Amino acid sequence: MSKVQSVIIETSPHRPVNFNEKAVSKVLEESYLIADVKEDGVRLNLCVEPSESVHRVHWLSREGKEFPAFNQQLPLALDPRWPEFFETDEALFPEGFMLDAELRIDDLPCKDIAGTLRRHQAIDLSRLKVIVFGILPMSVVRSGQDYDVTHSVMKYHVEYQVKLLQERFPEIAWSVVESLDCFSMEEVDTLYESVRERKLEGLVLKDPNGIYKRSKQSGMWKMTPDDNEDGKVVGLVWGTPGLANEGKVIGFEVLLESGHVVNACKISKALMEEFTYTVRTATVKAYGCGPGDAFNPYLGHTVRVTFMERYPDGSLRHPSFDSFRGISEPTIKE
Predict the structure, then answer these.
(1) Domain DNA ligase ATP-dependent bacteriophage T7-type C-terminal spans what residues (predicted)?
(2) Which SS3 state, helix, strand or coil, does residue 83 take?
């Protein structure tokens, strides 16, 4: 994993809460819902700020940390086209703005995108896809306050700014999130099923009269399948003595956000070798070659666990390790 990254800007983006049918139905009784299609990417807070005669550009995670892959590359930073973007093109928020978006690289799944962003290697800009669903001025971002603009209005701000970005910076694939207005739970359910059939992650439902809030608050609801959960590594799972994987790390003990502890295994042989080598190397470094318990260098790392079924008591059937969730810092979910 990469070294700990410092916070560049505390962006504190509005994060959706889990789906709540009662809350969602109440919104539908009064108006309608904006249903954004949830892409299988990494949350991006792209901040653009003027500084004297140049513009600073930060590609940040939702924790406000620079993605390691962009530390040296700094895409679009100090680009001479920014003055034209704001003055000639008449873009919104010339004092600076933040795009709240999903970042994709080619058509890679989320865990591979996260792995690519963790590496300190430049990425060809033609591989980047920025799917935008929010925009707000940097003055609001830095204030930490809610942004008093409704979701129904913000989507037009997003469409306007994205169109200008497409024209001025065509080397990156900018787009507006796919979105539909739903007027009943039946429409929501139908859209959700069609999105899942397309192998996409799900929906983010928004109250059109709600405003952009900071951090995890109501007004936005995440509608995704209950087949994965995040947690933190609290221990190692070793292969059974006498069997083929004896002496190898075959998974992790994970404390899930729901409070349950599971053994998340079912990893590839390549990951077994990688995890085992890392643990052995860390153990020798920590304790030398003498006897003693293994040192766990993965302790506290955030991970995603997939499973087949959640039992009524909250425990999981066939939990499996899926991926690490940290990018700029292994102990923080991004």
Answers:
(1) 225-325
(2) helix
pTM beyond 0.85: the answer is no
Give 230's strand partners: 304
Among candidate residues 3, 22, 26, 38, the one labeled active-site is 38
**Among the four given CATH numbers 3.30.470.30, 3.40.190.10, 3.30.70.20, 3.40.30.120, the one describing domain 14-223:** 3.30.470.30
Strands 302-306 and 309-310: unpaired
From 134, 193, 119, 158, select the one nearest 13 (Cα to Cα). Answer: 134
Label each residue of 18-62 as H, E or C.
ECCHHHHHHHHHHCCEEEEEECCCEEEEEEEEEECCEEEEEEECC
The beta strands (E) that lie in 106-227 are given as 128-137, 147-150, 173-176, 179-182, 202-206, 211-212, 215-223
DSSP code string of 281-301: HHHHHHHTTSS-PPP-TTTT-
Tell me if residue 248 is catalytic: no
Rounded to whole angstroms, the Cα distance separating 314 from 21 reads: 19
Distance CA 218, CA 15 (A): 9
Report the alpha-carbon distance of residue 69 to residue 116 in Å, rounded.
7
Name 177's Cβ contacts closer than 8 Å, sequence gap at least 6.
36, 37, 39, 102, 131, 132, 133, 158
Cα–Cα distance between 273 and 250 in angstroms, integer? 9
**159, 92 Cβ separation under 8 angstroms:** no
Pick the CATH number of 228-324 from 3.30.1830.10, 3.90.650.10, 2.40.50.140, 2.40.10.340: 2.40.50.140
Say whether pLDDT at 5 is over 90: no
What would the pLDDT profile of 141-159 be if each residue is shown by its tens digit? 999 999 999 999 999 999 9
